[in-house]
Amino acid sequence: MDWNEKYRPRNLAQVLGNARAVQSLEAWARAWQHGHPKKRAAILSGPPGTGKTVAAHALASDLGWEVVELNASDDRDAEAIGRVATAGALNQTFDDRGAFLRADEGGRKLIIIDEADSVHGREDRGGVRAIVDTIRRTRQPVVLIVNDLYELTRQSSSFKTLCETIKFQSIQSRTIKTALMRIAAEERLEVEDEALGTIAERASGDLRSAINDLQALAEGKAFVLAKDVGAVGRRDVRSTMFEAVRTILKTDNVLAARRVVSELDEDPEFLLQWLSENAPHEYTDVRDRSRAMEALARADLFLARAQRHQAFRLWAYAIDLMSAGVATAKDREYHGAPRYGFPMWLATMGRTRALRSTMGSLSSRLARECHTSVGIAREELIPLYQQLFELDGAFAVHQTALMELTPPEVAMLLREQTESTRVQQLLAAAESKDAGRRQIEPYALGEGAAYERAAAAREAGSGDRAQGTGAAGAAEGGAGGEGGGPAEGAPDGEGASQPDGEEDKERQRSLLDFG
Question: Which of 74, 77, 113, 392 has the most other CB atoms within 10 Å of its CB?
Fold first, then answer.
């Protein structure tokens, strides 16, 4: 039997290390005993083997909660998450004997999504969106377990606001050694103290790996000696982005800076964004800051050339500049613990992704309709159409129907929110079966001065045409002489002179109306 499972903590008191994280997890869970807390999900983040999953299961055991778990081996696309996690989060629960437990009477299920930071790719399509939706709607506590918090929040910033973040740290080697001694005693296994110390130190804070190593060494033996531990290699520890940025900005050791980057499983361009965001805040001396930014600028050039010419050997130069170059740019040490932040450029691009997508699709529609380039449509036609949509409702209805504009595109042209009343009314008018016909009354999108002037001009024109028609009929019936009225059979009002202003209004109406 696997020793990790055999000696797994059965309650929170047995969880080793990370006492503060365990207390925070318990406090969050206790809030569910009194209703729905403000943050209905908790993120347990930290390196592998630090007790995140066992703490979640121990919590459920302490509180008598059922567990619904979705781990990395399961399908985790939108449909699977909706079927398992969302359904579990929204429904009531039953105990082990099948008795119904109401949530308002203390009956709870703990929804555990393990390795939530690895939900991505084609096989997990829609999974992140489904997890966010589950958290928003849940009536049951949800725990997300991640190794890399930044990878999770990079996929959706909603996790930051919806979830309580609880960080687990690597377990100290002396704590690991104590746990190994206890397991050896339970297994009646004699292990040299030096061997225990070596196993604990080489585990690099991963208790689960240390237990696996001890079990492997003890296979078929009653004694484990220090010389036997030579077969156990040191764990390949991957750095997080936060650790890499902190090491580069704090150290002046070239080897340490290069090593932490080599242990970072991230794209060099992503590291460049992080350092560009945080180096100016760390290096308060203007000369240090200048040298650091110069190194990052040169690294950016190498990365661009590598991408352009597919010469990825240039990455080595960029990485040296980002690590050793930035680390040695400072003349003095910077103490304190500043809060390193996510790159604002990436955050801004994430927030404006929908807006940029709408701008692109609208530019393409206008370019097609007006037989011009997408660039000209974006720079010149969109501002023009925004003014026209504001000034003339009939034009807005006609163009919306003609180009089959989407709600976000209409909202951009009206400079309104997609859910606004004006946008919905315009879409409804464009969808009507008579849209685009001349007999539709000009559609009022607002009561601004521009629209009022246009309405007054239309009313004045209608009155003048009516008067002209009546006068022509009277002249034809009364005088009947040549030249006394319009020629017989001529359209009403034809031949009658109109003031220049009325001709201009008539021409404008013909341009703005649908026909």
Answer: 113
